[in-house]
Amino acid sequence: MTRTRALRTLENALRRLGFHRIAGVDEVGRGCLAGPVMAAAVVLHPARHIPGLSDSKQIGPLERERLYAEIVHRADAWAVGVAEADEID
Questions:
Q1: Order of strands, sheet of 37-43, starting from the edge strand that comes earlier in the sequence
Q2: Exposed, middle or buried by CB within 10 Å (0-12, 13-18, 19+), for 9?
Q3: Confidence of residue 8 (pLDDT cuts 50, 70, 90)
Q4: Quick one: which of 22, 12, 17 has its CA closest to 44?
Q5: 39 CB contacts (<8 Å, ≥6 apart)?
Q6: What are phi and psi of 26, to 5 degrees?
Q7: What is the distance between the alpha carbons of residues 28 and 40, in angstroms, rounded to a whole number?
Q8: What is the pTM of this model?
């Protein structure tokens, strides 16, 4: 599997406008027909790179677990939310 390097174009443009805390957001789930949808937001310090961080769909389960621990430890802020099927409907 080939990893795509993040360009961070939008993040860099926002920093030039004066924003210093920028959250990355992702979701997982197949929608209300197949169960809950989960979403997470993380604010990482731009000068503290986390090696191996990439799209979760491009990382194996063991690497995801390692990165989870690293992200939670080093993040400026993070949150996870879930919406159940009946809530989405």
A1: 23-28, 37-43, 77-83
A2: exposed
A3: confident
A4: 22
A5: 25, 26, 27, 28, 80, 81, 82, 83
A6: -145, 160
A7: 9
A8: 0.74
Amino acid letter, 25? V
Six-digit token string for 22: 């920028």
pLDDT in tens, 21-66: 999 888 887 666 677 888 899 999 888 888 888 777 788 899 989 9
- 39 phi and psi angles, rounded to 5 deg: -135, 150
Contact between residue 78 and residue 41 where contact means Cβ atoms under 8 Å apart: yes
Q: What single letter denotes the amino acid at residue 28?
A: V
Q: How far apart are CA 27 and CA 64, in angstroms?
A: 15
CA atoms of 38 and 81, how far apart (whole Å): 6
**Which residues, other chains included, contact 64 with Cβ-Cβ below 8 Å and sequence gap of 6+?**
56
Separation of first and last alpha carbons in the chain: 36
